[in-house]
Design brief:
- The chain is an alpha/beta fold.
- It folds into four domains: 70 residues, no CATH class; 139 residues, Dna Topoisomerase Vi A Subunit, Chain: A, domain 2 (3-Layer(aba) Sandwich), CATH 3.40.1360.10; 232 residues, P-loop containing nucleotide triphosphate hydrolases (Rossmann fold), CATH 3.40.50; 66 residues, Orthogonal Bundle (Arc Repressor Mutant, subunit A), CATH 1.10.10.
- Helices cover 28% and strands 24% of the residues.
- The strands form six sheets. The chain has a nine-stranded mixed β-sheet, with helices on both faces. A four-stranded antiparallel β-sheet has the order 1-2-3-4.
- α15 crosses α17.
- The longest helix is centred in the C-terminal third of the chain and has 18 residues.
- It starts with a helix and ends with a strand.
- The relative contact order is 0.07.
Length: 611
């Protein structure tokens, strides 16, 4: 078609310089967002709201090939004749993909060449078809319930080579949904932004007839490129290169699919129409902005409320010898049993599930398994590994595969910093190179990933946010931060405290535990606080002891008449020559309480312990 014939099908056409803008026919376009340009015998269309070119052409009632008056880079469409040869040399034929109708009759071919060229041998008026349509219909007639949808013909044939039913749906039409009636569909998207959009577009159509639809990204832990991302063919080739047999590859693909959630348009952010703002054809598209009213509510799911949210990365800090491994085993056991965690809020609703620990410090045979046995853990649901690897893109992919394979609801990494490789542990950007992939894995596999971290020698000078090794960036990335420790005056008095909670109101009290005769016990509510846990437990020097004693006397006198604003106490202490660290040690030793006034923007107060 000519340029004039194409633009005549558009509404709201306006000329801007040498180009045009128009109302995009593929979405409810309040402001013109479709740029139109004529270049070298081609019509270039771009929707700045994100509609793909095939959707635009479909809405205009034209085929993609009709945008080209002459072949482009070897792409040739013989719509004006039957099986014409390309008009330019495009190399030797390397693949031909035959498109057949429901009766198995060949209707046209997609021919690919070594020179990156391709053309369709398509008679005039021939209707577009799903690739491998007869095989799909036969499978459905034979009672096969599951089918894969791939982006390209090569991907489709590679998946079929593993023994599955697969099709490709380029230029999908609404009417094609009936071919999938009653079937369970898995769409394997290409790992890039166009692949994501195309997968959602296909899912919207097929969900009207299919029994269920899933979308699977085989590279969920890798950064999402704008284009030219990896696909299922790359995924299969990587495994064949690694020596995997096709039977093993097929089993792995089936496990990944079984672990994927059913696609739900109400939970798909891609289904929320962004608010449009007009812009010129040569400008960058606007940010995707969503109306708050259009964003669907999503309830937080909990492994252990409010300590461990599902689908998130969390962090637990504790000093050496405090019982982090015992606590880890207690958590693994409780998850595997579906019971055994103290009910702090709500109710425990997670059924018995698999759990996993990645441990670089403890022997699997001499430490972890014996402790799990002592807790009567269901060992068949708990998975252990002592393999040390770096959380590089390759390591993250291996971890993601293991999680997809064993489907744990809880994954403990102990200690986290044994798996960070050469990352600068104090640089926020490099920290995110580790935590962001862990967050994505947790979200994709709907598990909780709990990183274990040691406490620094200074214990953050009594501040929980600074207590863990290597900076606050790790704590910032966690949705929940937990601290475990002991009473400086009683080594047997131990507890777990929550010092940060992004997804719910934090748990203000401490939960006690004890370790006796090599066994772990929950002991209920504890009076320990993060400040008490982080108070210095090493032997004080005579000078430090005298300074603390003086500070304790100062606090007794200052607070003897009742509570006092925290800032005033700290100011008076500075004027008396008492350092902040010494004041904190004295406060912890005396169990002085800090409370917040109920008034709006109320201040914090210190007061002596009651009773």
């Amino acid at each position: 078609m000519t340029f004039d014939q194409i633009v005549s099908r558009l509404e709201g056409l306006k000329k801007i310089g040498k180009n045009f803008i128009a109302i995009c026919p593929s979405h409810d376009d309040g402001n013109p967002s479709l740029s139109v340009r004529g270049v070298d015998g081609r019509v270039l269309l771009k929707c700045h709201a994100g509609c793909d070119i095939e959707s635009i052409c479909r809405a205009m009632g034209i085929s993609l090939s009709e945008l080209f008056e002459k072949p482009l880079n070897g792409f040739y469409n013989a719509s004006n004749g039957d099986s014409k040869a390309p008009t330019k040399s495009i190399g030797a034929t390397i693949a031909e993909y035959v498109y057949r109708d429901a009766d198995g009759i060949e209707r046209y071919r997609n021919v690919r060449h070594s020179g990156a060229g391709r053309y369709y041998r398509k008679p005039s008026g021939a209707e577009s078809l799903p690739y491998r349509l007869p095989e799909l219909l036969k499978a459905r007639a034979d009672g096969i319930e599951h089918v894969f949808v791939c982006e390209g013909e090569k991907d489709c044939d590679n998946v079929r080579g593993l023994g599955f039913v697969a099709v490709s749906l380029k230029g999908i039409k609404d009417a094609w949904a009936e071919y999938f009636a009653g079937m369970h569909v898995t769409i394997i998207q290409d790992h890039d932004e166009p692949g994501t959009k195309q997968a959602v577009s296909i899912a919207r159509i097929l969900a009207t007839q299919a029994a269920s639809v899933r979308i699977t990204d085989l590279y969920p832990s890798e950064p999402m490129p704008n284009k030219n991302g990896k696909d299922v063919s790359d995924w299969i080739d990587e495994r064949r290169t690694a020596g995997d047999k096709d039977e093993e590859i097929a089993e792995e693909l089936a496990r990944i699919v079984d672990g994927a959630d059913t696609w739900n348009p109400e939970k798909s952010i891609a289904d929320v129409e962004p608010t449009q703002r007009g812009n010129g054809p040569d400008e960058e598209p606007p940010l995707k902005v969503y109306r708050a009213a259009d964003v669907k509510d999503e309830r937080v799911e909990w492994l252990w409320e409010p300590f461990l949210p599902l689908g998130n990365f969390c962090l637990l800090d504790g000093e050496e010898g405090i019982g982090k491994t015992f606590l880890s085993c207690a958590l693994l056991t409780a998850v595997a049993n579906g019971r055994g965690l103290p009910i702090l809020r709500g109710e425990y609703t997670v059924p018995p599930s698999n759990a996993m620990i990645v441990s670089a410090e403890d022997s699997l045979s001499a430490v972890l398994k014996p402790r799990l046995v002592s807790m009567d853990a269901p060992l068949e649901r708990i998975y252990l590994t002592d393999e040390v690897f770096a959380l590089s893109p390759e390591g993250v992919e291996r971890l993601s595969k293991a999680i997809a394979l064993y489907e744990p609801r809880l994954v403990i990494i102990d200690p986290l910093f044994s798996y960070t490789g050469g990352v600068n542990l104090n640089n926020d950007n490099e920290i995110r190179s580790v935590t962001d992939p862990l967050k994505r894995i947790a979200e994709v596999h709907k598990c909780t990933i709990l990183g274990i971290r040691h406490i620094g020698k200074s214990k953050g000078l009594g501040e929980a946010r600074n207590a863990g090794l290597n900076g606050v960036g790790w704590r910032a990335a966690a949705r929940s931060h937990l601290l475990i420790g002991r009473n400086p005056q009683d080594d047997k008095d131990r507890a777990i405290c929550q010092t940060k909670s992004n997804l719910a109101e934090g748990y203000s009290k401490a939960l006690g535990y004890s370790i006796r005769d090599g066994r772990f016990y929950w002991t209920g509510e504890s009076q320990l606080t993060p400040e008490t846990i982080l108070s210095y437990t090493r032997q004080e020097s005579t000078e430090e002891r005298n300074e603390r004693t003086d500070a304790m006397e100062f606090l007794r006198e200052t607070l003897s008449k009742g509570r006092m604003p925290t800032k005033e106490v700290q100011k008076s202490a500075r004027e008396a020559g008492i350092s902040e660290a010494t004041l904190r040690r004295a406060k912890a030793a005396m169990n002085i309480e800090a409370v917040k006034d109920d008034a709006p923007n109320g201040a914090w107060f210190w007061h002596l312990p009651r009773g």
